[in-house]
Specification:
With about 280 residues, the chain is an alpha/beta fold. The protein has nine helices and 16 strands.
């Protein structure tokens, strides 16, 4: 089935020569990213940039964001909009998941830019190499994980670092109802679409994420409030709603430094520091 062969977890050592940064969902907003990287004096010869995924759709320049997949200093996890684009390129309507994702792509207006997209054969193989989860600094005190949506389900609880470090034993194919996906799916779908944590937070429910290191994610638009990113359990939410920034002054793009535990927020009114 579509995405079953997608890389599940990829591991990275700590950056021994430069800095690491994490950017929230890009959604075609390459100019915002470039301004943020200039602001922090990003050095591609030694710094690295991790991404919570959703490189495409909604913003003005999806192709420029896709070009990042060719950069040796750029490391994304797969987002649901990226997966929808893959399904649209694949066009395999006999595959249940591919058909479902392609349908979501066209109904999220992806066709408005993809109809003019002539480089599908160039970028599809690159997307096939993008993992669902990244782990940086495993077995160190500075470890962090990266996923697009979440690593939590209200019925079975949170994943642990141990689960991520033994991916062959993790039940990726386990079927369950996914809040945010609004249907049955597996953990492959959950890490791309899940919104259990946001619903739990709204209901003031307690969540147990003990055993899971700080996990950075995007997917659900959560702009910093009072210049602080939204944290719930072990998850830190970095999707500031970049594509909506030209229309909403409270929305923008988040760039985060996991080492310094601080970040920067691009809005139409300028770049400001956040914590």
């Amino acid at each position: 089935m579509f995405l079953d062969d997608q890389p599940k977890v990829q591991y990275h050592d700590l950056n021994g020569k430069g800095r690491d940064f994490i950017v929230g969902d890009l959604h075609g907003c390459r100019t915002m990213l470039d301004e943020l990287l200039n602001h922090v004096a990003f050095d591609p010869s030694k710094d690295r940039l991790f991404s919570t995924g959703d490189l495409v759709d909604r913003g003005p320049d999806s192709v420029a964001c896709l070009e990042l997949l060719k950069k040796p200093w750029f490391f994304a996890v797969l987002g649901n909009h990226d997966a929808m684009l893959m399904a649209w390129i694949l066009g395999n309507r006999k595959d249940k998941r591919a058909k479902q994702y392609e349908y979501a792509f066209t109904h999220n207006s992806g066709w408005e830019w993809a109809g003019r997209f002539t480089r599908a054969n160039e970028f599809f193989p690159l997307f096939q190499q993008v993992p669902l989860v990244r782990v940086v600094g495993a077995d160190t005190p500075h470890r962090f994980n990266l996923v697009h949506a979440e690593l939590y389900d209200e019925t079975v609880g949170a994943w642990s670092d141990t689960d991520l470090d033994c991916p062959d034993e993790t039940p990726w194919g386990e079927s369950h109802w996914i809040v945010g996906f609004d249907g049955q799916g597996t953990w492959v779908d959950h890490v791309l679409w899940g919104r259990n944590l946001h619903f739990a937070q709204r209901e003031n429910a307690e969540v147990d994420t003990e055993g899971l290191s700080t996990t950075y994610c995007g997917h659900t638009i959560t702009p910093p409030k009072d210049d602080r990113v939204f944290r719930f359990g072990s998850h830190v939410f970095l999707d500031g709603g970049a594509f909506a920034a030209p229309r909403h002054t409270d929305y923008g793009m988040v760039l985060w430094s996991p080492t310094e535990n601080r970040g920067w927020f691009w809005t139409s009114q300028g770049i400001r520091a956040i914590a």
